[in-house]
Amino acid sequence: MADRYLTFTRTAPGRFLTRRLGLPRPVPLRRFSPEHPALDGPLLHLTAGDLPLPGLHEVLTRTGLPPHTGPLGTRHPAAVVLDATGVATVSALVDVHATLHPVVRSIADCGRVVVLGAPLSPADHHQAAAQQALDGFVRSLAKELGRGRTATLVRTASAPATEPTLRFLLSPKSAYVNGQTIEVTPDAHAPENDSPGRPLAGRTALVTGAARGIGAAVAEVLARDGARVVALDVPAARTDLVRVAERVGGAPLALDITADDAGERIAAALPGGLDVLVHNAGITRDRRLANMAADRWSSVLDVNLGSVLRTTDFLLKSGTLRRGGSVVATASVAGLAGNAGQTNYAASKAGVAGLVRSLAPRALAEHGITVNAVAPGFIETRMTAAVPLLIREAGRRLNSLAQGGQPVDVAETVAWLALGGVNAQVIRVCGQSLLGA
To answer: Mean pLDDT, to the nearest integer, of 263-291?
Structure first.
């Protein structure tokens, strides 16, 4: 559904009224397209602290933006990467201010600020305090930047292991990811791929709930990135499902993900194995708890959480999920922050986050598989288009980017997580929602 307010604010009367009334003035986000795959402008590489991350500059040269360590003159940087991995004391935090303060106003519209931090030391509480301070700094900066610009903190001990994450964050693909802290896992590397622009070439992906909305967008982006996609949805959605599968050059699989034998049927449909499992299927049955019938509670928990647990367990145990693969589940900002009228939905999505955090370390150690989740906020879909106008407008504006996200924003994040490199992460795709995020 079109965001008429955003369109109006781009007109002369809209600019006048929003300025006079102090209303949000969102900037249309720059998203990936084959014609414009990169941000426009140079990358400014800055360092705070005494020990820069070895090999970082070489990694940055491969992200698609030309890195510079000196003044840019009148040019506006498309992105700023601040290496703060060497910040280990409170006094060293002065460098963070000193390096970013002079340049933050000059960042181009829809630009990026990426701060690199180090893992928190369990043996040095001064280092841990200084590095944790970066989390609050980045979350606050993300709320200040405006004009479609985003800020992210990445904790890492290895520049090469951070490359897939930097490629994502320093591109238009991360347009709706803002104010997040991401931890890179050095031993969660995906298999090397030498196909430019198709990082998932040679891999097979299964996307549940793929007949429409976010699931269809995920199928399209994974196929664009080279994966062979199997699109799964309920038999009642077969017509839309077949259409999506044909559009991405994949295969449809019509079955109810809550069926007792769903795992067995998926394995039978994938005799060659599976590399990327995307749990996107989900339903809502909203009511306040006092008015919620038992079947509304149990059906949401079964589809959104129970089926995720059962099928993941079976596909891991059966070996259908191949070593070096990935699981990407769908949580929700509602599950992290709560939402009135959605106790069942929020419980199911919070459960997904619990699944990820518990299973991820074991899955990586025992099977070489990463487990992560996306947590969408307000995304423009058929479901949100049916929300009453005032509630819909509040959902759109109550984030740092002052607009709703698109299904492709979730899909791009899923595709990045499918590559490996991070593990046990729940990534909010919400424009930095101001409600509990």
So the answer is: 96
Over residues 170-221, the pLDDT tens digits come to 999 999 999 999 999 988 766 666 666 899 999 999 999 999 999 999 999 9
DSSP 8-state assignment for residue 226: T
Taking the domains of the chain in order of start, what are their residue ranges?
Answer: 39-183, 204-429
Q: How far is CA 71 from CA 55, 77, 99, 285, in A?
A: 21, 10, 12, 55
Question: Nearest to residue 381, comparing CAs of 250, 246, 242, 218?
Answer: 218
Neighbours of 35 (CB within 10 A): 5
Q: What is the chain's Cα-based Rg? A: 22
Angle at 278 between CA 208 and CA 296, to 5 degrees: 50
| Type of residue at 120 | L
Which stretches of 379-433 are DSSP H helices? 382-385, 389-397, 407-418
The residue type at 147: R
pTM exceeds 0.90, yes or no? yes
Q: What is the pLDDT of residues 109-157, one digit of tens each?
A: 999 999 999 999 999 999 999 999 999 999 999 999 999 999 999 999 9
What are the backbone dihedrals phi and psi of residue 120, each rounded to the nearest 5 degrees, phi first?
Answer: -70, 130
- Angle in degrees, CA 51, 53, 59, rounded to 5: 155
Matching fold, domains 39-183 and 204-429: yes
DSSP 8-state class, residue 365 = H
Q: What is the mean pLDDT of the chain?
A: 94
Which positions are catalytic?
Answer: 345
The gap from C-alpha 143 to its chain's centroid, in whole angstroms, comes to: 18
Of 22, 410, 28, the closest CA to residue 219 belongs to: 410
Considering the segment(s) 39-183 as one domain, its CATH architecture is 3-Layer(aba) Sandwich (3.40)
**Cα 258 from chain centre:** 26
Name the nearest CA neighbour of 151 among 141, 162, 166: 141
Give the Cα separation of 240 and 246 in Å (integer): 10
Give CATH for domain 204-429: 3.40.50.720
Helix ranges, 199-261 (H): 213-224, 238-248
Tell me the two tokens of residue 90. Answer: 């409170």
